[in-house]
Amino acid sequence: MKRYSAASLFTEGFRGHTGWERAWRHPDPKPAYDVVIVGAGGHGLATAYYLDKEHGITNVAVVEKGWLGGGNTGRNTTVVRSNYLYPESAALYEKALQLYEGLSKDLNYNIMLSQRGMLEVAHSRHELEACAYWANAMRLNGIDSEVLTRDEVIALVPGINAGPGARYPVCGGYIQRRGGIARHDAVAWGYARAADARGVDIIQNCEVTGFRRDGAGTLVGVETTRGFIGAKKVALAVAGHSSVMAERAGFRLPVKSYALQAMVTEPVKPMLDTVVMSLATGVYMSQSDKGELVIGGGLDLYGSYAQRGNFPTIEKVVASAIELIPAIGRLKLMRTWAGIVDVTHDSSPIIDRAPVQGVYVNCGWGTGGFKAIPVGGYTLAHLLARDEPHPLAVPFSLRRFESGRLIDEAAASGIPH
Amino acid sequence: MLLITCPECGARPETEFVCGGETHITRPGPFAEVPADVWAGYLFHQANPRGKLRERWRHQAGCGLWFNLVRDTVTHEITSVYRMGDPKPEIA
Ligand SMILES: Cc1cc2nc3c(=O)[nH]c(=O)nc-3n(C[C@H](O)[C@H](O)[C@H](O)COP(=O)(O)OP(=O)(O)OC[C@H]3O[C@@H](n4cnc5c(N)ncnc54)[C@H](O)[C@@H]3O)c2cc1C
Ligand SMILES: [Zn+2]
């Protein structure tokens, strides 16, 4: 791998950019690997990277039915934050944020992490009390947070609807200043390039259609649209399609697939330099470097694999966004899209061995797993390499649904993404 | 926007309805004898197929009725609507 640097950019500028090499290969599948990872989203690619970096395992393939980063990793609104309530989640997502903070250097790829702050706006006295509660819980977990007054929120978000006629009055809020956004494609591409350089085969346009076992029931590999690929271990990182893959492998997962939508407006001059979220409506917004406002909200509330959303949700999200910052009401929406997300009952992920031999799962990130990509890969690699969960992943087992030890971030923080 | 046919009121927009998830689920019992994995199955392991699914819906902003339907989770096509207590339709 030729390293990217200021010097290489300078030299290539003089050479008319003719000397750049391809960021990753397009290899044909080998007959067998030690580990086959299904799904070249952020979590699958990061797993491959850390398998070599942390554990020296390079005989690895990542098999992707479409193109790498074309799933939710390339469809999300790119918010990164670690403002979770429970200690287990705080530890997991904070590790992810810390890995993100060093990731551009680690991968030699600019992921454009912009720690512009994640602001939650409270619209009532009760929401403000809840904000103080979260902010204090975060501090107890060693994570930065600050409660803001009404005036501080108004100063941070010019144009926020704080007038006397506001449907949702602004009462204050809290901010995690280390939160922000990153470039989603760059995260997938950066991990792909770095994993490829370490010898990982990334095989695109190849769908895993089944699992093959020998007479004794031991896993020997996967069936794919490009033929059989041998594997000692298979890891699933397929987000919204986790149930489909689990069924093919002969087990069930406690997840449900929904469509989550997002949308962008036409580009405008810089007007918003933080990520702002309205607690009452669940809508949130940030402004991309191109100037578009990136807007997200809640799920389409019935099961879906359609990878497109329905209009009533768009209408609700847009109405909430305009309620929050009325000045954007004249902007046109440029694009809307959806991804299929895998939601658990407690809105916490699953990083565990599957109940069938040889299969490992990373799923259940639902509406909020972009921010967790580094730690999802890091802990799944640990599990694959050592056959025991990383301490950070222990609480996020499948067993919790039987023991009742849920980590109910859905009820706790009520934040959808 | 889905058009959903309530058995009482006829075709109405999806915004009048809420989806209650998989239908034809029986609560296991008696309570003290149900093993943990069966409870977990009942509470958390709902069907999540890519394709046809039997669901219950409620006409929340209308007559309030709970009823069943068969919907395809990829195309959203609704192929049958039937009342609580009606026999379970076959799905391919
Ligand atoms: C609209 C939207 C907004 C979001 N906003 C945020 C946000 O602001 N912050 C945040 O943290 N998270 C957010 N999320 C959630 C986040 O995008 C996901 O949790 C995360 O990207 C999941 O990454 P992944 O690698 O697990 O899955 P994906 O990126 O979806 O990758 C899974 C891959 O598996 C492949 N695959 C599936 N089946 C097979 C098969 N049989 N064989 C081979 N390959 C297969 C798919 O093609 C896909 O590429 C959002 C999601 C959406 C949809
Ligand atoms: Zn009705």
UniProtKB/TrEMBL annotation, chain B:
GO biological process: tetrahydrofolate metabolic process
The organism's taxonomic lineage, starting at the top: Bacteria, Pseudomonadati, Pseudomonadota, Alphaproteobacteria, Hyphomicrobiales
Pfam family, one: SoxD
Protein's name in the database: Sarcosine oxidase subunit delta
Molecular function terms, GO-annotated: sarcosine oxidase activity
